[in-house]
């Protein structure tokens, strides 16, 4: 049996800050296969970005401390690689799109040069990235890389793309820069794409176009995707699977239709009922009572227990393990079996 594309096993991460050490990832388990788009959702501060940054190993240590666990890319533990080895994987095997586009383009270089550099580096790992023979000379490879850069820029919806390759980042709007970063992440045909709120800064029509591009790229390049978002609409529209995070744990995961269609964890249910629908009357929108816990002194056992209307004394004894509730669908709650009855009874 071949190893899954990405397998995160029991990942524990602590972050040092002036206030102390926060236990921000508390035993994350996540498996992503090629062809799958996993949405990673949850409230602000629950550890979505740090999960993504851990996979790409872009979170400096310190302040990060990997306390336990493994992050396996086709069986190879990324946590055991040196930064130099990681650098060789980034852009080629792992593509990344980040929350803040302004910090990720070099202001001193033209957009085209930055895309060409990534394409040439990726072609060293996978000659198929460039449309030219593998033994082509330097000049021919550069020409092919520039053609590819223009094509990618056009695919992310930049008008007049070939000419815009000569622009500098400051000549692009924020939304256009974000699209350049998406082109940059896809140009090397990564096996795994980590996209952290890739469309938050974009207007709705461009957002739909980018999500469509990510979906098509999954088919074209046979990649796997981790799509971090707080927008369940984006998940429903784009993802095949979803993992719901709460305070450093994945509390529920599985195929989108199962998790969104029949959520079982009390947190997922609360998250869903906080979304307005056409039937929601004014003033009826239910927020989630309480706030995200302090992760320096996290609540014992299930971290959601202090806010959970179904909590029992046993919930604070130990962090509940993920219990299967259907095909590939699992929830970390000791009361999942009773949930249907509790909610409707
Ligand atoms: N550099 C850092 N130093 C100390 N603590 C940090 C650091 N970065 C993040 N944290 C803490 O780790 C927790 C998880 O942060 P993370 O950025 O992963 O959240 P998130 O789920 O991506 O939230 P958002 O939806 O707001 O982007 C937060 O409680 C945050 O305060
Ligand atoms: Mg984040």
Please describe what this structure looks like:
The chain is an alpha/beta fold and 345 residues long. The chain has a domain at 244-344. It has helices spanning 48-56, 83-89, 111-125, 138-155, 161-164, 174-187, 204-221, 232-238, 256-261, 266-273, 336-344, and strands spanning 6-17, 20-32, 37-41, 64-73, 76-77, 94-97, 192-196, 224-228, 241-246, 249-255, 323-326, 329-331. The chain has an eight-stranded mixed beta sheet with strand order 6-7-8-3-9-10-12-11, with helices on both faces. A four-stranded antiparallel beta sheet has the order 2-1-4-5, with helices on one face. A hairpin with a 2-residue loop joins β1 and β2 (20-32). α3 crosses α4 (138-155) and α3 (111-125) packs parallel to α6 (174-187). The radius of gyration is 21 Å and the shape is elongated. It starts with 5 loop residues before the first strand and ends with a helix. The mean pLDDT is 88. The structure holds adenosine-5'-triphosphate (ATP) and magnesium ion. Residues 15, 17, 22, 24, 42, 44-50, 63, 230, 295 line the site of adenosine-5'-triphosphate.
Distance from N terminus to C terminus (CA atoms, Å) equals: 44 Å
Q: Strand-and-helix sequence, N→C?
A: EEEHEEHEHHHHEHEHEEHHEEH
Number of strands: 12
Strand order of the largest sheet: 6-7-8-3-9-10-12-11
Q: Report the sheet with the most strands, covering strand number, pairing sense and barrel closure.
A: 8 strands, mixed
Mean pLDDT across residues: 88
Radius of gyration: 21 Å
Percentage of residues assigned to helices: 25-40%
Bound molecules: adenosine-5'-triphosphate, magnesium ion
């Amino acid at each position: 049996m071949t190893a899954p594309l990405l397998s995160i096993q029991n990942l524990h991460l602590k972050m040092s800050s002036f206030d102390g050490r926060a236990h921000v990832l508390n035993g994350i388990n996540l498996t992503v296969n090629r062809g799958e788009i996993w949405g990673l959702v949850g409230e602000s501060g629950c550890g979505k970005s740090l999960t993504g940054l851990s996979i790409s190993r872009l979170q400096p240590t310190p302040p990060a401390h990997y306390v336990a666990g493994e992050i396996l890319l086709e069986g190879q533990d990324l946590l055991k690689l040196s930064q130099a080895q990681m650098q060789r994987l980034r852009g080629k095997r792992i593509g990344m799109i980040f929350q803040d586009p302004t910090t990720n383009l070099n202001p001193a270089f033209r957009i085209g040069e930055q895309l060409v550099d990534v394409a040439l580096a990726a072609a060293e790992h996978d000659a198929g990235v460039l449309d030219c023979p593998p033994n082509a000379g330097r000049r021919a490879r550069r020409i092919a890389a520039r053609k590819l850069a223009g094509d990618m820029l056009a695919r992310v919806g930049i008008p007049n793309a070939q000419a815009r390759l000569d622009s500098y980042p400051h000549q692009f709007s924020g939304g256009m820069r974000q699209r350049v970063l998406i082109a940059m992440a896809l140009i090397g045909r990564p096996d795994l794409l980590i996209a952290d709120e890739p469309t938050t800064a974009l207007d709705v029509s461009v957002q739909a176009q980018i999500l469509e591009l990510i979906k098509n790229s999954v088919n074209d390049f046979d990649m796997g995707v981790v799509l971090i978002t707080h927008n369940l609409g984006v998940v429903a529209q784009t993802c095949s699977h979803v993992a719901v995070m709460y305070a450093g744990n994945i509390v529920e995961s599985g195929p989108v239709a199962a998790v969104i269609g029949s959520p079982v964890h009390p947190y997922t249910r609360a998250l869903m009922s906080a979304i307005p629908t056409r039937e929601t009357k004014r003033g009826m929108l239910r927020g989630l009572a309480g706030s995200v816990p302090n992760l320096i002194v996290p609540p014992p056992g299930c971290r959601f227990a202090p806010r959970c209307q179904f909590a029992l004394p046993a919930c604070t004894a130990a962090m509940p393990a993920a219990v299967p509730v259907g095909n590939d669908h699992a929830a970390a709650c000791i009361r999942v079996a009773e949930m249907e009855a509790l909610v409707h009874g």
